[in-house]
## 1
Amino acid sequence: MKIGNIEFGEYPLFLAPMEDVTDPTFRLLCKRFGADMVYSEFVSADALIRNVQSTERKLNINDEERPVVIQLYGRDPEPIAEAAKMAEAAHPDIIDLNFGCPVKKVAGKGGGAGLLKDIPKMLEIIKAVVKAVNTPVTVKTRLGWDENNKIITTLAEQIQDCGAQALAIHGRTRSQMYTGSADWTLIGEVKNNPRIKIPIIGNGDVTTPERAKECFDKYGVDAVMIGRATFGNPWIFEEIKYYLKNGERMEKKPFEYYIGILKEHIEKNIEWLGEIRGIIHTRRHLASTPLLKGIDNFKQTRIAILRAQTKDELIEILDGIKEKYNLV
Ligand SMILES: Cc1cc2nc3c(=O)[nH]c(=O)nc-3n(C[C@H](O)[C@H](O)[C@H](O)COP(=O)(O)O)c2cc1C
C-alpha cells in the first residue's frame, strides 16, 4: 500500500500519535523495532501560529525516523492551513489532521473530535490544508460523535473527496472516550466500500500479534495503528512483525534484554530533559511495561521504581529485579 509516494510493504504497523508519549526518543525506539511509520504528538495549530516555543519544539524530527507524520489539531480552516505550512517547513513525510481527540479542553472547544459535530467545517479544514501544502495530508478520526451518530461510512467518502490521502479510524465514538472496546466492524465496512480508494488505517485495542493479524485478515485494513500497547513495550512491533511473517510468536529474549531497552529509554529521556524531568517522563512506560507485570510480590518494587528521584537509584532497582525475583 502507498500513501502519496511512500511505499509500505505488506502489513504495515504504525505508531499512533499520543500526546506526551510519541516524542522523538520514543518514536525512534519504536522505529528501531519495526514501526513502519511514526506520528508526532498532536500539535496545536493555534499555538503554532502564535509561535509558542514548546509547541514549535514538537515539530523536531530526525531523518532516521522517516516516514514520520506531524499531526495538527485546531478548530478553523485558516489557522490550521497556516500551521500546516509551518509544519511543512519541518519536512515531515505526511501532515495528519486530528479529528478524534475526545478530551474536553480540545473537543469541547470545537477541535479534535469536536469537529465530528460540524462535518462541513471539518471538510473545509481538510480542503484548506490540502490546498496549502504539497505534503500528503491524512486524517485521523473516530466512528462518530456518539452511539446514535456513527457516521464514519459516509464521512470517509467525504474525507476522501476533500483530498485526504489516507484515513485512520479509531473504532470508538467520542462519547466512549477510551471506555468499552473498539468496534472494528465499521472500520471494515469503510475499507470494503468500493468507493473508498485511499488506504484505511485501523486503530483501537490492538495489543497482541494475534489481534493484529485478525485486524488485517478479517477487516482488510491497509495498516494497523498501535497506541497504548506500546507503553514500555516498543518491541511489540518486532513481535507482531514476526508473528505476521511466521504464524507463530517470537521466542522471548532474556529479561536483561528488555530491561536494557527500558534503561536506554530512561537514559535518552534524561539526556533530553534532565534527570528528574527525564525520569518523570519515562514513568508512564515503567508503570505500564508488560515486562514487570505478573511478578509475584512486586508491589513494593513497583512503588520504588515509580518514586525513584535519581537515575542511579532507578537503574539500581531495575538491575536488581532479575536476581531478586529469580527471573530468566
Ligand atoms: C496518552 C494518550 C495520548 C493520545 N494523544 C493523541 C494525539 O495526540 N492524537 C491523536 O490522534 N490521538 C491521540 N490518542 C489516541 C491514540 O492515538 C489512539 O487512537 C487510541 O489510544 C486508541 O488506540 P490504542 O487502543 O491502540 O491505544 C492518545 C491516546 C493516549 C492514550
## 2
Amino acid sequence: MAETIRIENATLPAEGHSVRVSANGTPVAVFLVGGTLYGLDARCTHAGGPLDRGSLAGKEVTCPLHHSVFDVSDGRVVHGPATRPVTAYRVRVEGTTLVLEHD
Ligand code: FES
C-alpha cells in the first residue's frame, strides 16, 4: 500500500547534492538532479552504507563503503556488490513541506 510521509520545514539539497531526512524514523537520502528531487532509503542494501554521503554522477549514486551504484530515480542496482534495490520515494515540495511517497 502506498505510504505518504510529510516533513515540515525540511532543508532541500542543492543541485547535484543530497540531504538526509527522517521519514517516520527511516533515513531517506533526498537528491536533486536536473531540477528534480529523488528519494532513496539512505541505507545501502549491501551493508547499510550511507547513500546520502555517496558521490552523485547524474542519476547514479555510489555508496561510500564498497562502491555499489544505484539509480536514484528508481533505486535499482546499476552495479554491485549490492544485489537488491533500495526503496525509492517519489518526492515533491508543497510550500515548506517535503512530501515523500512510496508504494
Ligand atoms: S555498504 Fe554499500 S556497497 Fe557495501
